[in-house]
């Protein structure tokens, strides 16, 4: 296909992601949602935007220093042009979010929960605030006057500080460190909350006494997190190199400076100078709270009955009828499918726990990317090793923002006797594969393979939509054996028959499936493709999707987040539709269907359609051949697109 055909049919990745976060914000603005649920979506919006600045804005700032600067293959923009567009859109979103916060706070106030401003309090509540400051906050504060003997302090990533202008060129800084972001009180009039930073700002003039600040504002620094560990750093001790990497990342340059109040031009200039911010780094004042913690803290701090009345009922996962007794025996009857969070992850956890004690189990192999705290899965693997099983854990230490957690788990699993490897040089292992080997006395071990779309994480399994397929299919089992053997040898080029394994076969087989539908359409037969993933930005795939639409294939994309293809362009993508679902559960499923009704080919797996997943990660997709599992997946698709 002509390389230029896709131009004009594509969207900048960063703007596409911001459009996704706008959809999250729209959930917070739904009056039909209970107020605490709306507040939770606000917290998610702020947390998402924080990560976007730390990673994506940080990357654009880094790219601006390159010569020549790279050009975006979706728009032809330079990094500077992308950054300008991103900051305009981000400012628009933050302004909108400030208005949404006001509406949600009004909703909460009508229910008896108020957010108070220190300067507006009087009477008993003012006295309560004063005691809170005197007894709990003031002893922990160390106000600094910046001069030759008191250098400007390091403000940690996403740490709040109160900054005061003490004179024409003198700053005062009060670091808030690990102080709680929100404090909730209860009295006869109801529940009321104070932002800790606002309380410290209110009392800051008293801390500086005779220096009499001209103004005080609350600020927050967000730092770059776009740092890549160099493989050569860990030639002898990769775990130690990752510990050092995490420490270095905490000290990278700022990518955004936020203010909770509008500072004077003088104060803003002084602070930017002290932080050595280049012109490209944004600073802004906002009505939106600086830290997402306020949204997640309030519900936990309210009286339980009040919190319950302001939230939607908690949905419990349905009982899994087949998951009784010996789980492996149930899977041996035929393939099984778990659909989280509508069903519990417990059957899989129980499978591992039973395998740990089963004398017929000789070995367990598993890829681990993000584990929950106090993970029962990790505990089962450790117990299996302690019971003499051969347990191999491919534990990816480079899982962004989970590095420290994974380092700790690697030590725990090694101490228990597991063999732990840390992924591959140059490739993150993001696949979700577990292989259990049974020694029944035959020529080859019997296999039970689990392949999923989500992490082995009990917490996120209750929050994210994901699929988990369990099968004793011998072809899939042999492919899984090859996968783990290749990972042990440090080889990303995995040979496989049934499984699609990135980086070798995932994209080629994906394109081949689309080619098959293109051939059907050109022969005048019904042709169809349904692709449900989290993100899509890969240009070879985008060009193939355009080709499919032009050939007459009906293409339904179900993409939660980044989606860099434009639908509905006459002559190019007019047979392509895109749907994005943002709701109570985070859409995380990767599900593919090719073929018109009656000849569907179904696959699930771990990888999105991003360049990194297709080219720089180990990902695994599996075909779904079991009739009952296929029926379940077709129901999932039918819910998404009722015309099927």
TrEMBL record:
Top enzyme class: transferase
Domain Polyphosphate kinase middle: 128-291
Residues of the Polyphosphate kinase C-terminal domain: 327-487, 499-639
Enzyme nomenclature, EC number: 2.7.4.1
One CC-aspect GO term: polyphosphate kinase complex
Gene Ontology biological process terms, A to Z: polyphosphate biosynthetic process
Pfam families xref list: PP_kinase, PP_kinase_C, PP_kinase_C_1, PP_kinase_N
Stated name of the protein: Polyphosphate kinase
Domain (Polyphosphate kinase N-terminal): residue spans on this chain: 11-115
Transmembrane regions listed in the UniProt entry: none
InterPro entries in the record: PP_kinase, PP_kinase_C_1, PP_kinase_middle, PP_kinase_middle_dom_sf, PPK_C_dom2, PPK_N_dom, PPK_N_dom_sf
SUPFAM superfamilies listed in its UniProt record: Phospholipase D/nuclease (SSF56024), PHP14-like (SSF143724), PPK N-terminal domain-like (SSF140356)
Keyword annotations of the record: ATP-binding, Kinase, Nucleotide-binding, Phosphoprotein, Transferase
Posttranslational mods: An intermediate of this reaction is the autophosphorylated ppk in which a phosphate is covalently linked to a histidine residue through a N-P bond.
Record-level Gene Ontology MF annotations: ATP binding; polyphosphate kinase activity
Role description: Catalyzes the reversible transfer of the terminal phosphate of ATP to form a long-chain polyphosphate (polyP).
Family: Belongs to the polyphosphate kinase 1 (PPK1) family.
Enzymatic reactions: [phosphate](n) + ATP = [phosphate](n+1) + ADP
């Amino acid at each position: 296909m002509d390389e230029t055909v896709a131009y004009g049919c594509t969207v900048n990745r960063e703007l596409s992601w911001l459009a996704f976060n706008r959809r999250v914000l729209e959930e917070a603005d739904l009056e039909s949602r209970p107020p605490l649920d709306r507040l939770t979506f606000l917290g998610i919006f702020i947390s998402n935007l924080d990560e976007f600045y730390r990673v994506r804005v940080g990357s654009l700032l880094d790219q601006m220093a390159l010569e020549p600067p790279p050009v975006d293959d979706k728009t032809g923009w330079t990094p500077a042009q992308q950054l300008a567009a991103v900051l305009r859109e981000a400012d628009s979103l933050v302004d909108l979010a400030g208005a949404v916060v006001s509406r949600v706070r009004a909703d909460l106030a009508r229910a008896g929960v108020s957010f108070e401003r220190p300067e507006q309090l009087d009477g008993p509540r003012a006295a309560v605030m004063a005691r809170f400051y005197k007894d709990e906050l003031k002893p922990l504060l160390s106000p600094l006057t910046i001069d030759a003997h008191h250098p400007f302090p390091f403000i940690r990533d996403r740490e709040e500080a109160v900054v005061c202008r003490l004179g024409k060129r003198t700053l005062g800084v009060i670091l808030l460190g690990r102080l709680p972001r929100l404090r909730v009180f209860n009295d006869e009039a109801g529940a009321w909350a104070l932002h800790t930073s606002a309380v410290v700002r209110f009392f800051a003039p008293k801390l500086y006494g005779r220096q009499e600040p001209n103004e005080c504002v609350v600020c927050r620094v967000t730092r770059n997190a776009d740092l890549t560990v160099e493989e050569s750093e860990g030639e002898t001790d990769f775990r130690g190199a990752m510990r050092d990497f995490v420490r270095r990342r905490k000290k990278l340059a700022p990518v955004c400076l936020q203010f909770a109040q509008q500072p004077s031009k003088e104060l803003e200039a002084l602070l930017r100078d002290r932080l050595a911010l280049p012109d490209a780094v944004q600073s802004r004042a906002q009505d939106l709270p600086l830290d997402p913690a306020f949204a997640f803290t309030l519900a936990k701090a309210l009286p339980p009955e009040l919190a319950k009345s302001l939230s939607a009922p908690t949905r419990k996962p349905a009982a899994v009828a087949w998951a009784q007794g010996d789980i492996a025996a149930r899977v041996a009857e035929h393939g099984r499918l778990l659909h989280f969070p509508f069903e519990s992850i417990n059957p899989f956890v129980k499978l591992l726990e039973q395998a740990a004690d089963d004398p017929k189990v000789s070995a367990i192999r598993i890829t681990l990317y993000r584990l929950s705290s106090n993970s029962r899965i990790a505990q089962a693997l450790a117990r299996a090793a302690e019971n003499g099983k051969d347990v191999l854990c491919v534990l990816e230490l480079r899982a962004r923002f989970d590095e420290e957690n994974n380092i700790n788990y690697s030590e725990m699993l090694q101490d228990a006797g597991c063999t732990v490897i840390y992924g591959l040089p140059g490739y993150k292992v993001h696949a979700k594969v577990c292989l259990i080997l049974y020694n029944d006395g035959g020529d080859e071990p019997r296999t039970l393979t689990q392949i999923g779309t989500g992490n082995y994480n009990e917490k996120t399994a209750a929050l994210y939509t994901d699929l988990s397929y369990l099968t004793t299919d011998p072809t899939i089992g042999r492919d899984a054996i090859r996968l783990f053997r290749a990972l042990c040898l440090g080889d990303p080029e995995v040979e496989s028959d049934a499984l699609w394994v990135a980086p070798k076969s995932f994209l080629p087989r994906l394109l081949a499936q689309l080619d098959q539908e293109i051939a059907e359409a050109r022969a005048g037969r019904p042709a169809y493709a349904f692709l449900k993933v989290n993100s899509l930005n890969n240009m070879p795939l985008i060009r193939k999707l355009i080709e499919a639409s032009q050939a007459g294939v009906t293409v339904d994309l179900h993409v939660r987040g980044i989606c860099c293809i434009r639908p509905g362009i006459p002559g190019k993508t007019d047979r392509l539709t895109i749907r994005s679902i943002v709701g109570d559960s985070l859409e995380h499923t990767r599900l593919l269907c090719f073929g018109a009704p009656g000849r569907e080919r179904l696959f699930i797996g771990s990888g999105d359609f991003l360049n990194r997943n297709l080219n720089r990660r180990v990902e695994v997709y599996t075909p779904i051949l079991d009739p009952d599992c296929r029926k379940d997946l077709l129901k999932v698709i039918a819910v998404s697109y009722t015309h099927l």
